[in-house]
Amino acid sequence: MKTTTSTTTLWGSVQLSMGLCMAVATHAQTPHALQGRIWDTRAQQFITEATLYQRAAAARYVLLGEKHDSEVHHARQLDVLKGMAALGAKPALAMEQLDSEFQAALSQAQAAGQTDAEALADAGQLNRKGWRWPMYKDMMAFAAQRQWPLRAANLSRTDARKIAMGEVVPALPVATAAQQAALEDDVVQGHCGHRPEAARLNGIVAAQRARDARMAQTLDAVGGPVVLIAGAGHVRADRAVPRYLAAPEQALTIAMVETMEGKALPADYDRAGFDVLWFTTGLDRPDPCATPLPGLAAPAKPASTPSSTPKP
């Protein structure tokens, strides 16, 4: 009888453990409430993929913002290209990942009938390591196989560096105080809370604006429908590429947005400058600010105060 009781107790414990494990697994697999949903920021409502593709196919410019290291974002961008193609759209595909100084070689390769993405990346001298190739391969291949023109949209790293260092002053429209402040805040956040000295900060902001202006020039030069693949910060209508377009009112800005725990409503996310938010799963990334940035001292720590003399 003792053995039976012991066995029964053991089996009950096993069942309880299995139940707890299944509960944990179920909880871990529960998708975020916004995952996969598409939010129209102007209409303040969710829309379907079909509706999004229709809007994209009818737009003069389609700007697809991403986090560069997210395979999910690139998959959704490809979905937009496929959706547009299914509706008969034949846009050019412009890419931040390609520097405009290599456009001639890229165009020559396409004119010769080249459709292999690897060969086209070579022609455009895409930095495979810096841009985590082959993350952009499928989009380039999709466009090239349909004979969509590929456009190298970015300012070269050399030119951007000269501007950032103050060696070159680009001719740009005057930024409003709000735009300048927002751009400076972007730089500070990118430097883990460190604010570079004024001249350096102004140079970095000028370089960012020059990159946005170059991408806008590339889109306008197409003379027809065009899709831009770029970081989400570059597609914001409030301070980035759309601001420099000839017809910004004809642009559709779509940001791929990673969901975050505790943020279950579209209103919980930055929506300024975007027409559409497409919510996706997030990535577990190491904290880029866990170690001091090269050339910058760690933020000063507040002086310790003895516990016996607390300050108000």
Automatic annotation (TrEMBL):
Positions of region (Disordered): 289-312
Origin superkingdom: Bacteria
Family matches, as CDD domains: ChanN-like
Keyword field: Signal
Haem-binding uptake Tiki superfamily ChaN domain boundaries: 53-245
SUPFAM superfamilies linked to this entry: EreA/ChaN-like (SSF159501)
Secretion signal span: 1-28
Record-given protein name: Haem-binding uptake Tiki superfamily ChaN domain-containing protein
Protein source organism: Rhodoferax saidenbachensis
